[in-house]
Write a structure and sequence with these properties.
The protein is an alpha+beta fold and 244 residues long. It is 40% helix and 10% strand. The chain has 3 domains: 63 residues; 34 residues, no CATH class; 81 residues, no CATH class. The strands form 3 sheets. The chain has a 3-stranded mixed beta sheet, with no helix packed on it.
């Protein structure tokens, strides 16, 4: 009995003692830690979530358990039903953890749940404002999960140009206008994003043709040195070439 009390009681008393001291245990702070816990918004949210879980989880588990118990004796395929119900108990927690990790991966190419959500979204709405658009391959932009990275860095005050291909001119909105080269601004990175094309034929290399259309509201959101900090001003509808 004394051994059991020592094994259980000593850790409890020692934990209470540590809770009355600072983070490294070097000084006594009294109830300061408890005051901080119950006034911290994150802790209060965690406590609320725990209360909700304690109330709902047992209720749902008992209700569903009673329903499954009745169904397992009354459905036509009772054996198959029981196999499906008890299958999770036959799978180890490690395997279940690996499976759920794969299901909830953020990458739609790996995560099943995210792939289903993305697929449903794309079935009823475009995947992006300009689906299929990508930087011209000859410029050396690298693609990754977050977008595209420029081959070089852009210091403050420089101007960057990003010609896009792979987007049909027939899908351009009516507000699209001729692209205009952005002006340099001290302390900022400016630039122009436009659809690099020529009407009536294939587009030549970027920088050699004036017939280019700039999609509206299309700021570049990533570069190697620092994020895009300024979008180009509204562009006129008259012809104006954009050079790299």
């Amino acid at each position: 009995m004394l051994i059991l009390l020592a094994i259980i009681g000593w850790p409890i008393l020692f934990s209470i003692w540590l809770s009355l001291r600072n983070a490294d245990g070097s000084s006594f702070v009294g109830l300061h830690n408890y005051v901080s816990i119950f006034t911290d918004p994150a802790t209060l949210t965690a406590l609320k979530n725990n209360v909700i879980w304690l109330v709902t989880a047992p209720t749902l588990a008992c209700a569903l358990g009673l329903v499954f118990a009745v169904l397992s004796e009354r459905v036509k395929w009772a054996t198959a039903f029981k196999i499906v119900i008890f299958m999770p108990m036959a799978i180890s927690f490690l395997a279940a953890g690996v499976i759920f990790e794969l299901v909830y991966q953020a990458d739609p190419n790996i995560g099943v749940a995210n792939a289903v959500v993305v697929g449903l979204h794309d079935a009823f709405a475009p995947a992006s404002h300009y689906p299929g658009a990508q930087p011209r391959e000859t410029l050396g932009y690298r693609s990754d999960a977050a977008g595209y990275t420029s081959p070089g860095s852009y210091p403050a005050g420089s101007v960057a140009a990003l010609p896009l291909t792979g987007y049909s001119v027939l899908d351009l909105p009516k507000s699209a206008a001729q692209a205009v080269q952005a002006r340099p601004v001290p302390g900022e990175i400016t630039g122009t994003v436009w659809l690099d094309l020529v009407y009536g034929g294939a587009a030549p290399p970027a920088g050699s043709a004036p017939a280019r259309r700039a999609p509206p509201a299309s700021p570049w959101t990533r570069c190697a040195a620092r994020p895009w900090s300024r979008t180009p001003p509204p562009v006129p509808t008259g012809p104006s070439p954009c050079t790299d």
